[in-house]
Write a structure and sequence with these properties.
heterodimer, A: mainly alpha, B: mainly alpha, 14 helices
Chain lengths: 77, 314
């Protein structure tokens, strides 16, 4: 991979993680609006943030099973 | 794409239950991103360049907190939370399309027995398990606070969503600064002491912020500092984790990703409960307890062995 391709890769991965984190934190500023609109408490509205993390408890661990990259062979890199 | 589409759909719902389900679907898509980004970096950047590459990616995603929270808050105040959510959904769809057209997927096959062997290797390593538990507690500390940060500014100072979100950018800014400095400090003085001390310092500052009535400016400054200190921990903790079981690094990072998700769920749920029952003072005490426990586990059980440095090519 050339230096230019690596820079492009970094930019793409950076943008991807940016959008992933943004999708997560977007709930924080709107919690009170959610609580007001749906008639729930602030704490209950916070469950919208919790719901976003829930699938990752199982999926994040399993995705490595499908790949396996970065284990053993790349440990010495 | 899943993350973006379901986030976009979430902006259209009329029931709270459906919003929860759609956010969970969006989270399912998001959960595969970080493990795969880490693996892609590991596959395409040699060890000596990997640290800088990881720092660049961390810089990108912490910028999401710096600019994302204020923009989402201001847009929500000017229009509705639905518009904020829809814009973020569209952004994620854009990122997915860029990825689809620019990167080709690589196929790596690993036998099931090999996978279980990697998990066994990690589970037999007391230091690695301690590092994962400590990370879980650290995540719990952080997400309990970060989820309700804007609500804290609204509640404590009577600010509007937009104004509270703007003050809350001190969090993203602090994490950004801390994460860039933390790695270098850890390289110099050892990652374990930084991981153990940063979370306690940050916890004490958070305890003060949530339990002592302070003016808005001082509270924001305090929030900036506590975020910078914990940001330093983010970078050093990742390094410490990758040093634990080098032969099963990917699997360890995957487990760490799973505990990260668990801490988002636990943090948001526990924080919400404490907020509804008692208020922010209780949230601060809970965070301090999680921080202390996380630090004690690191100091007592986690070893720091820079194996990679010895194995890296000259």
């Amino acid at each position: 991979m050339t230096a230019r391709e690596r820079r492009l890769l970094l930019a793409i991965l950076g943008f991807l993680t940016f959008s992933s984190v943004y999708t997560n934190i977007v709930i924080s500023p709107v919690i009170t609006q959610l609580a007001a609109e749906f008639g729930v408490t602030t704490g209950t509205a916070g469950l919208v943030a919790a719901a976003y993390g829930a699938p990752g408890i199982l999926i994040a661990g399993r995705i490595r099973i499908a790949s396996g990259a970065n284990d053993s062979s790349s440990a010495a890199r | 794409m899943i993350m973006g589409v379901f986030t976009l759909l979430g902006s259209l719902v009329s029931s709270f239950g459906l919003l929860l389900i759609l956010r969970a679907c969006a989270g399912a898509g998001a959960s595969v991103i970080f493990p795969n980004v880490n693996a892609t970096l590991g596959d395409n950047f040699p060890y000596r360049e990997r640290g800088r590459a990881i720092s660049t990616v961390i810089a990108f995603n912490t910028m999401a907190s710096v600019v994302g929270i204020p923009i989402a808050g201001i847009v929500a105040e000017a229009t509705s939370w639905r518009v904020s959510l829809a814009l973020v959904g569209l952004l994620a769809i854009g990122a997915a399309m860029l990825l689809f057209f620019q990167l080709r997927p690589a196929q790596v096959h690993v036998s099931e027995s090999r996978v279980f062997e990697l998990y066994r290797t990690i589970l037999r390593n007391r230091s690695a398990i301690a590092a994962i538990i400590s990370s879980l507690l650290g995540g719990l500390y952080w997400f309990t606070w970060a989820t309700y940060l804007v609500v804290f500014f609204q509640d404590r100072f009577g600010l509007s969503e937009g104004a509270a979100s703007t003050w809350a950018l001190t969090m993203g800014l602090g994490v950004f600064i801390g994460s860039q400095v933390g790695g270098r400090v850890g390289d110099r003085y050892g990652h374990r002491p930084v991981v153990a001390s940063a979370i306690v310092v940050s916890g004490v500052l958070l305890l003060v912020q949530t339990n002592v009535p302070l003016p808005l400016l001082i509270t924001s400054a305090l929030n900036l500092v506590l975020s910078a200190v914990i940001g330093a921990r983010f970078a050093t903790n990742s390094t410490l984790l990758t040093e634990q079981v080098p032969e099963a690094r990917g699997t360890l990072l995957a487990l760490s990703g799973a505990t990260g998700s668990l801490s988002i769920v636990g943090g948001a749920a526990i924080g919400g409960l404490l907020l509804d029952l008692y208020g922010f003072w209780a949230l601060g005490i809970f965070c301090m307890c999680a921080a202390l426990l996380s630090s004690l586990i690191v100091l007592r059980f986690v070893r720091e062995e820079p194996i990679d440095l010895e194995m890296a090519p000259a």
